[in-house]
Recover the amino acids of this structure.
């Protein structure tokens, strides 16, 4: 079984004006769809972050992928790593080099696993050791946001779906707005954990939002806040002490392993990260410093599904919990996340997903349905999904038309707040 | 695909009177052959250490294995771990508990991977991410030994095979004897690395053996010595300093992570272990103390082939090299070791094997042929081997007839040296 075709298709999907520490989401989020076709006419799918840089990265490894056997993942990973090392900028750090190679390989690995699953008649989860759970729980992902949301909703016509359609359109710029957003989102999808994207307003406002969510949902609903590392250490300690006993975990309030470790020593809340420890190369520092309790894995960043399973073993071995990070994404990523999360015994936290914020899909049958806050683990061969080529073509046309080439939340924010600047440490 | 039959067959294989720190090998080494049969009439093979305790351990998990889908390895591992935890002695440590569960699961996992490979038409290595090398190099494994060796040799009739047959029979009780053994073994199998099992004679004799091997084979031949932790720290430092620049690695000269770490700080030779760090539970201590440079993995002990791949990632991440440990074994273990070693990029050392010391086999086609010191990675489905049921029956009859129920090298040594006692620290 050899790979004979590799199709890299950049797409743009409608995205609401969500606020975060880096600024504002553009009207379109960029993704990249990877399709590998084998000599026996099977196709495998992958989805990655988007933009021209990702497309260039994948084009740069095309010659290594074509002609490969999708089962030979180890060899392909080594070849990609070596090839990218040769073409790396001389000043690129080892960590940056690992991350670039991991990202390039991730895109291909997912599609290869889909091919392998289809070739063997097995769901991808079975190529990762099999499922340890039948459904994968996801977390509600709340955002402060400006009014409006592009895209046609595909969530159905029932009362809760309509409620979510309205909430997705609505502004949410204060605690009450976030509670309303959470209620609509949880009603529509049944989420049983809530994450608030912070780093947008004064910490007092965001902490008050957490308190408001707790009042609205009660103490049994796990709550998380993610200020994306724009809080100072003293700020994070101060508000962390107030949130002890309230948060399930405290995600990246401060920047870097050193400050995370100092914060961790000062407050009694589990610290989670998808910023200070995001590669295998950063794990020795994480252990040396004790920078977090929970790693938010991301198969797009860590080198694919098998590498993420290996990360799971590392977390189990060295006393780290495991959760999962998300970016704006469609169903190929969601399916891959679901297979992965089903295979990792110690992935015991509900997984982040932006999926409710998206409205489009590239899958036959349309959007995957999150119910009771979770997705069933697909049982069909491979990822268990099929590509809707008309939808893909439309979203690729969106990409060409929208003019965006990379995510830049700062520029987008400047369109509504002229002169706004991203500040790595803000409060 | 469900497992409908589980056959656990203890066997006894001829073993020469090899000396080691624990005493003397008995005339028979005990192994356990595991066969799982699926409802579509495929069988999968595993081979484990032997004796009544292993048989009991495997019988205790039989009900969990029967009816399982061999692809659901994660679930089976969890079920076995939980089951054994419930039946554990109250004073069993967490490390001991993990090791027991890992050992029980290993036996089943290998056979499941063989089933999975046969069911999908893929070699086991492809279920581990595929091969990164076409052949797996093994190391010559030298022993001080008494004269004699049971079993009929199956190595062929050429000059080198005859030479090895004679050397395998001969006594080897001094440096010259070991050089002759090494020459015969390397001529017959083409090994390009040499390991000396030490801990038998005064360190001066064993170090002189290393020097004699170096004189005989030249400085390009990698040499290792393994005193099985019976040297004191000061002894190991003294002789380690003399062996700097001579040894490829220095395996377990002292006992425990603390002493290994102290030795590592004192001598400039890579330290290897299959004694002080032999489970995931012991890795945090290994990193905290810095107890070794190289871990000798063993899929029979670490929880199977997939766990060993994960150990490989841990070694890559935290700066440990990776080699592989062996016990007296037959071709099922050898095939599994070969698939595993082929899939782990950083397994860059020649793998230990006792295989040349064995003379029997349970495989159709007889013994696997190590040539140029290496084995080709099997390309057939599963492990790529078939069970010779007549040979299995004969070796099971051996087991019943020989009366051995566990390995006890001390008792065996006392038969030739009355009153001999194992000393955990001897020199």
């Amino acid at each position: 079984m050899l790979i004979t075709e590799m199709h890299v298709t950049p797409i743009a999907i409608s995205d609401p004006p969500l606020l975060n520490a880096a600024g504002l989401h553009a009207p379109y989020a960029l993704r990249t769809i990877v399709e590998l076709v084998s000599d026996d006419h099977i196709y495998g799918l992958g989805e990655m972050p988007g933009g021209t840089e990702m497309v260039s990265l994948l084009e740069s490894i095309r010659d290594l992928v074509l002609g490969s056997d999708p089962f030979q993942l180890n060899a392909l990973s080594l070849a990609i790593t070596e090839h990218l090392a040769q073409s790396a900028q001389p000043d690129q750090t080892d960590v940056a080099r690992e991350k670039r190679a991991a990202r390039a390989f991730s895109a291909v690995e997912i599609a290869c696993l889909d091919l392998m699953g289809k070739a063997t008649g097995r769901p991808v989860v079975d190529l990762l050791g099999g499922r340890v759970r039948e459904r994968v729980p996801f977390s509600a992902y709340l955002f402060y946001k400006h009014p409006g949301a592009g895209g046609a909703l595909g969530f159905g016509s029932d009362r809760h779906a309509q409620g979510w359609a309205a909430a997705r359109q609505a502004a949410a710029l204060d605690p009450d707005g976030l509670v309303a957003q959470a209620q609509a989102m949880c009603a529509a999808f049944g989420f049983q954990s809530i994450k608030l994207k912070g780093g947008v307003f004064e910490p007092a406002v965001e902490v008050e939002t957490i308190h408001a969510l707790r009042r609205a949902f009660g103490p049994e609903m796990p709550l998380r806040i993610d200020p994306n590392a724009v809080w100072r250490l003293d700020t994070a300690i101060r508000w962390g002490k107030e949130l002890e006993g309230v948060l399930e975990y405290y995600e990246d309030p401060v920047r870097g392993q050193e400050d995370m470790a100092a914060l961790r020593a000062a407050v009694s809340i589990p610290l989670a990260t998808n910023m200070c420890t995001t590669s295998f190369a950063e794990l020795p520092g994480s252990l040396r410093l004790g920078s977090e309790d929970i790693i938010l894995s991301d198969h797009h960043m860590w080198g694919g599904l098998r590498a993420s399973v290996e990360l799971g073993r590392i977390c189990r071995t060295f006393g780290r919990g495991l959760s999962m990070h998300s970016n704006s994404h469609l169903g190929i990523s969601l399916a891959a996340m679901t297979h992965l999360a089903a295979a990792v015994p110690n992935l015991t936290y509900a997984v982040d997903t932006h999926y409710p914020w998206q409205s489009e899909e590239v899958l036959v049958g349309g959007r995957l349905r999150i119910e009771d806050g979770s997705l069933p683990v697909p049982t069909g061969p491979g990822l268990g999904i099929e590509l809707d080529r008309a939808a893909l073509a439309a979203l690729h046309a969106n990409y060409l038309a929208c003019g965006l080439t990379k995510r830049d939340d700062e520029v987008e924010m400047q369109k509504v707040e002229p002169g706004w600047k991203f500040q790595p440490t803000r409060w």
